[in-house]
Specification:
The protein is an alpha/beta fold and about 375 residues long. The chain folds into three domains: about 1-100, UDP-n-acetylglucosamine1-carboxyvinyl-transferase, Chain; about 105-200, UDP-n-acetylglucosamine1-carboxyvinyl-transferase, Chain, CATH 3.65.10; about 205-315, Dihydrodipicolinate Reductase, domain 2, CATH 3.30.360. Helix content is about 30%, strand content about 25%. The chain has nine helices and 16 strands. It has a four-stranded mixed beta sheet with strand order 1-2-4-3, covered by helices on one side. A hairpin with a 4-residue loop joins strand 15 and strand 16 (about 370-375). Helix 1 (about 15-25) packs parallel to helix 9 and helix 2 (about 45-60) runs parallel beside helix 3. The model is unreliable at about 90-100 and about 250-255 (pLDDT under 50).
């Protein structure tokens, strides 16, 4: 296998790997990634990154090397059919193929990441595949639904996926069981349908239209009313500060809004744990902010942490939160568009560098209200 693209992950983490794999499938082009997760204290593939690699490889019948825990170099060659035929790896020696875009059969798959590996990050890696699906794809994953350094499952369900639906993604997410750190044991299913992404234009957010709140506790914590206390902590912090924060938002009217949706749930889980997600609705979309419970941290404080993140966002002008800023770039590479992001984080820079490395045209411009990132579709 002669890779079409040689990529360097020395200044990036797991998101670089996930984005690279997704684009490899969408473009039907082989890649070689060296220095995988090179800027992490433990570089190379960890269990959850290996699960992403193995899952995508199985779905698209890819040829893979370097698929082991600790591996710092991988090669990945998808095998999507083109014009009704399998790609055929014998014609893949040329590094300049422009007509390899193929189609992907769906199906039903089951994945066990093990312990509390992030389910939501694996789901993130699968979203781009919808653009080349010929039939529905369902992937059931066992692992962690609400764990550190990854979006809580309610952020995925109630913030990211609803926003992507407005731009053409056919998707649903079912949660069978919650899984908290360190035991995991959660289970959720992502359903993707064949999708055609619309161009994304997210430059203005309009006025704040409503607040939604999702607070969850493991069943073993229900006698302490943890979910309710988290929600109360978040709402009290918002009520005390929302007026001033919205005044700082050029499009806001300064009003303090009551939640238009409030869900407090008790969930079965293999271990104690809690999570809270706040969603802010705007005319053009939604943003989300989450926090996880930790031993020794009062439930009210957990809610306050999520509220504080929301309040910080309200002082700016971006219509997407800092997590979506990074995760939307792979969709921009497929559909094209422009987004205003809160700031140019290291994650965003690494993703932009990746898009440029595979032939994308990316522009970043500071305009006093954030950073505007413009991406020309890779096939455009």
């Amino acid at each position: 296998m002669t890779p079409v693209h040689r990529l360097d992950g020395s200044n990036a983490g797991g998101q670089f790997l996930r984005t690279a794999l997704g684009l490899s499938v969408v473009r039907n082009e082989s890649i070689r990634i060296e220095n995988v997760r090179g800027d992490r204290s433990t570089p190379g593939l960890r269990h959850q990154h290996l699960a992403v690699l193995e899952t995508i490889a199985e779905i698209c019948d890819a040829d893979v090397s370097g698929d082991g825990v600790g591996s710092e170099t991988i090669e990945f060659d998808p095998d999507l059919p083109t014009n009704g035929r399998r790609g055929g790896r014998s014609d893949r020696s040329s590094p300049r193929r422009t007509d390899r875009r193929g189609s992907l059969d769906g199906g039903d798959y089951a994945v066990d990441i093990g312990t509390a590996g992030s389910i939501t990050l694996l789901f993130d890696a699968l979203v781009p595949l919808a653009s080349v699906l010929e039939s529905p794809l369902s992937v059931t994953v066992s692992g962690g639904t609400d764990v550190k350094w990854s979006p809580p499952i309610d952020y995925t369900r109630y913030v990211k996926l609803p926003l992507l639906r407005t731009f053409g993604l056919s998707v649903a997410c079912e949660v069978d069981r919650r899984g908290f750190y360190p035991d995991g044991g959660g289970r959720a299913t992502l359903h993707l349908g064949p999708s055609r992404f619309d161009r994304i234009e997210l430059l203005e957010r309009g006025p704040l239209e409503g607040i939604r709140l999702y607070s969850t506790e493991a069943a073993t914590l229900s006698d302490r009313d943890v979910a309710h206390r988290q929600a109360e902590g978040a709402l009290e912090r918002l009520e005390s500060n929302l007026g001033a924060a919205v005044d700082a938002d050029r499009d806001g009217d300064g009003s303090v809004l009551e939640p238009i949706e409030r869900r407090e749930t008790t969930a079965g889980s293999d271990c104690p744990g809690t999570a809270i997600v706040l969603r802010l609705d705007y005319a053009t979309g939604a943003v989300g902010f989450g926090a996880l419970g930790e031993r020794g941290t009062p439930a009210e404080r957990v809610g306050e942490l999520a509220a504080d993140a929301a309040l910080r966002h309200l002082t700016g002008a971006a219509p997407v939160d800092r997590h979506l800023a990074d995760q939307l770039l792979v969709v921009l590479a497929i559909a094209g568009g422009r987004i205003r992001i809160p700031s140019g984080t290291d994650h965003v820079k690494a993703s932009c560098d990746l898009l440029e490395a595979v032939g994308g045209a990316v522009e970043r411009e500071q305009d006093g209200r954030g950073t505007v990132v413009s991406v020309t579709p890779l096939d455009g």
